[in-house]
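Hi D.,

Good news: the full-assembly prediction came through. Inputs first.
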Amino acid sequence: MDLRTKYLGLELKNPLVPSSSPLSKQLDSLRQLEDAGASAIVLYSLFEEQIEFDGMEMDHYLEYGSESYSESVSFFPQPQEFVRGPEEYLEHIREAKESLEIPIIASLNGASAGGWVEYAKRIAEAGADALELNIYFLPTDPQQPIGEIEETYLDIITEVSRTIDLALTVKLHPFFSSLPSMARRMVEAGANGLTLFNRFYEPDINPEKLEVEAELDLSSAFESRLALRWIGILHQRVRADLAASTGIYTGRDAIRMLMAGASVTHLCSALLKHGIPQLTRIREEMIGWMDENEYESVADLMGTMSQKSCPDPTAFERANYIKTLNSYE
Amino acid sequence: MKRPMVTIDGNDAAARVAHKVNEVIAIYPITPSSGMGELSDEFSAKGEKNIWGTIPHVVEMQSEGGASGAVHGALQKGALTTTFTASQGLLLMIPNMFKIAGELTSTAFHVSARSVATHALSIFGDHSDVMAARSTGWGMLASGSIQEVHDFALISTAATLASRVPFVHFFDGFRSSHEVNKIHELELDEMRAVIDEKHVLAHRARGLNPDKPVLRGSAQNPDVFFQARETVNPYYEACAGHVAETMERFAKITGREYRLFDYYGAPDAERVIIMMGSGAEAAQETVEYLAGCGEKVGLVKVRLFRPFSITHLLEALPRQVKAIAALDRTKEPGATGEPLYLDVVAALVEAATSGQLEGAALPRVIGGRYGLSSKEFTPAMVKAVLDELGRETPKTHFTVGIIDDVTHTSLEVDESFRVPKEGMVQALFYGLGSDGTVGANKNSVKIIGEGTENYAQGYFVYDSKKAGAVTVSHLRFGPNAIHSTYLLDQANFIACHQWVFLERFDLLDKATEGAVFLLNSLYGPDETWNQLQRVHQKRILDKKLKVYVIDAYAVAKKAGMGGRINTIMQTCFFAISGVLPKDEAIAKIKGAIKKSYGAKGDAIVEQNNAAVDMAIENLHEMRIPVELTSQLELHPPVPSHAPDFVQKVTGTIIQGKGDQIPVSLMPQDGTFPTGTAQYEKRNIALTIPVWDPDTCTQCGKCSMICPHAAIRQKAYEGTQLDSAPETFKSIAYKGKEFAGFRFTIQVAPEDCTGCGLCVHVCPAKNKKEPRLRAINMEPQIPLRETEAANYDFFLALPDPDRSVVKVKSVSGSQLLRPLFEYSGACSGCGETPYVKLLSQLFGDRAVIANATGCSSIYGGNLPTTPWTVNGDGRGPAWSNSLFEDNAEFGLGFRLTADKHSEYARELLAGLAEAVGPEAAREILDAEQDSEAGISAQRERVARLLDTLATIDNPQARQLESLSGNLVKQSIWIVGGDGWAYDIGYGGLDHVLASGRNVNVLVLDTEVYSNTGGQMSKATPYGAIAKFAAAGKPQDKKDLGMMAVGYGNVYVAQIAMGANDVQTVKAFLEAEAHDGPSLIIAYSHCIAHGIKMGAATDNQKRAVKSGHWPLYRYNPARSRQGRNPMQLDSRKPQLPIEEYMWAEARFKMLAKMDPARAKHLAALAQEAADERWARYEYMAAREFGGGEG
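Then the structure:
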């Protein structure tokens, strides 16, 4: 069975790419993912804001209370050197590249205009095979003009793609007013791929404790529908590789995404919930399914059920909603 | 060749040499010497090698006794070895010092000389410690300047190797150890050239070696000990010569000349001062000025005090000298004089009788004391001494620098005398500890000292408080070397970094005419004038000051720097002081920012650089009106209703004028009244808690956690509210024991430090607006007046009846009046809530032995004490002995209490007929296990005293004096982990083993907090501390289980922030246990690198992760056939990493060495799992045996 696929200019042995998760933090688990059959790995995100915050926080706490009292003019030894966030991350890329044969896709969440470019450059230098731009802004200010956030997205992509040679994918959220238009503009700005979708931690309210809680909730298979629709719509409408993220638990789930038009399928919750061996199972399920349904390669099924190719294109649109409701009658 | 110059403090100057010329360094932290050990540890951690190319081992020991033992051992094995110490630390080394000298062993100890505790502890500088060690047979070399500290560190080492006489190289604590000055740094080749390699090899060859075995340290008998003791004489006779030779070699190599006694002043001087240490620098400055004016005065600086070389002294003295004043920085009550005086007298008499004076007349010698505990020693005082020498009958055994109106020893000083300071910038900065002023000034001294040709000096004065501490920075800059070893008494630049200081201090009294005044003002350049107090306006007009204002907090906020105004104010100083051209200064500040913060991130560098630019933009010169307009006066230091002693002594100290208090006003034996913190209203909180009665559940948590007793609760009868202020809040009390009462939670607005812990622990939420709790922080200033009135009313409300209060509950315990209030501990301190709880539960009958450390400082550092009394005048009686002996000290309390109680009972039994058999029996058989029982016994004893007054009998008088012992007293032994785990552990162990009824409270911050974060044996795996710069590779000692091993010791491990109910239970059970009890209390600390206002979260994580399991081991239960071990926390659910990474002490390692951090975290996890399994097993054991 030929499971090969192309993504961001990389030849991958299959479309199963573990996405950014705690599993990518340790070299050991990276190796296990490779052994389980991952064709590439997206590393956890480097958060510029976190790095800067850590630096300031460290400075604050190491200095706090010093020079206040004769006996304790300081409370900590002077550190020789800090391994700041980027160094640790870059070293992780280097180590991963040395230890693994499969491509490593780094992920970056910048905070400042300079930060995106600077960190992207250093990630490229560290040897990453591609870069995922994990961009998100949550607008809460009613005074912020419509369109400003979109422009910020495009500026970042333009700047980074101008600076580095690496293939770029942008991890999107689904809340743009016109996703196809935004996707097209991102690709024009320099994105080689789009990842659908970024999944935010949604806050919850504890009514007894009167607290807002943000706990990790793994995605469900049902949540994959949102990505499925938009991949189906965007396939062949934008000149970019599409990656499906969210809610892929089984080989059949992965097949559905590939049929909608995804080049790769990201795995996260499935691996966190069932462990790394789940990746092998998904791969085997894919092979079994393709065998049973007489597909010889991933290329044979990719995009076959996208909006452009499927038997009923309107099913991807608003009518789909009406139909669904009607189906309960 | 241009030699390198550095701008460093004295500790740094000593350590930079000591680390290079030794192989082993064994230390124990003690102020003010700790810096030398810490720097040595950092040098070794960085891989810096000594002059022979190997990295010295630096080892922290459990006490100075231990350090000196390790040093002695290392020396005996042949290593070049040193230590650093001061004060009590040096005293603990004396036994080993006798041995080391007796064995003719080469070593040089570097001592930042500090007062030995007598009537009080003092961390400041004088020579009482080194003088106490002068009989050990060690050479003693005194440094006066920072350059000398650096140079003599090398000379003493070279000389000890040459002479085989061990050396104490000493310099003045704080004045020299902490003064920053510009010096020539010795290069490694220079050090190599000064130290003679053959002596190094000889030293090593004398080391114990099984290949060439010897025995050293024999026991000798009357037949030979004496003769053997005299064998060392040739070494001592040759020693001064070795030092002189070393100094000559040093001069050839470095160009800096020293002699055993150096002379300054007129060659034909008739009046000469002889002295040593930093004071000699001020004397040099004065004598050279006066000699330049034609006065026949001189100064002999003593470099080598031991062995004392009469010949060299005579060489240094001018032949014409008629009168000599020998000045000592120490006091020896009962002696015929202080040590240097006696030596000078003996030297001159010996010289005269042996004909060495060569016909010159024997000069008159007077002795005087100066500078005890860093008391200022100024040119005016030097002149007073020289003037005294010119009198016909000069005063001897005088003091200078104080007003002695009791035995009239003090000299009159003309305070207006000054040595002119041409071309020198003298700058004074008033700041808060928390605003970064001192750090910025240290940086400025470095910028000028190392970035320009100018010399620079910085000295920093802190007050006695840890929260809201006022700092005063004294900076001098100029083209010539600076010898002024005293504070600025005049300044041509003054900066006030905090507006509130204007309300309290006369800040401009030291301004010279035309000086520049920089003010951090909330008000703009036009408005500020009208907000100034009258005294400041007057000084500005009279002295024609130039005034600049900046709203530094607004700029800091805009620059995203929170409350850190250091960079902003530093920029302003450079912009207007004229010390450097403005653009050059700005460039240098930015360079320094890059150096300081570069490792922590670009953002923080950019933020500071932006603050520099914004500071310049927002700095404005104030237009000075021509007339005084203000009617505002300075706030009095204490209220007018404060007692006389507080007015005259405490208030004067608070005002910063303690130097003016005469001898007659000071207590003679170190005894002070308690209850004085209440008069020191510091108003340091920007925000204070405000109570919302409708949301409150009356749980008591806010009051319980408050480190400063600044939020309190009371239940009282509603009728009391008739005269309540309008804004006073109350609500119906919920408890049944005071049914129908009203209840109030009240903040002490002027005593609160604004830490926010109370709000953080408040579990109640306002249902309409859940962001609000039952208490919420609001700005202090608008509330200050009304809440102060409410607080006064609250305090006047009667305390609830202790015998009715449900003390076993958190809420109930908080209805008891705290007898520990408004301490100067750090804002949000993790120790003081326990200390306060102790005072609430048992304070009215407690006697407290307090180990030296944070708790003795916030408990007993002048001017005020938080220990106080209740409405009956009862309260904790408190004392501090030392650091190392606190358990034994407290046991002494118990022994006396037991003896006196026993004797009182014997007397009462003997007087039973006279006082009434029934009354006597009731007292002797009284139950005193409850508040009601205690109260009833007090009443009985009061009646007994009435009866005894009518009995004319010596036994009655004896019983009167002991009657207080018939009421049960509660003996508490309180201290930190440095005491309990390290220096005091041997004593603590013995006291726990004694079976006596003492209660030990260990405030475990897992680090030496008071001396600035050194590792203790309580420091856990992976925590970074001084002497554990790479993260501690061992786990903390399990002190609790060691005590459990005795079987009859009550042991509790508690963490108030995680389980306050267990905390209250543990205190009550420990006190009720008729035997030794040990409470180990997790105390979050500023040295953990955490958010102090949310530190209960850290406590919770410590418990949930299994780092700090909660338990109580109560031997009373085993007597009832029950398992004495009770676990009070659940099986660990949180990975220990989640506890660790939330604190900078651990996280710092993760940032420095992630792999090691992970490794140590894994070990910590293993240790926590294993610990829990062990405790769980102990708690689960079947405990048979039935009752009894």
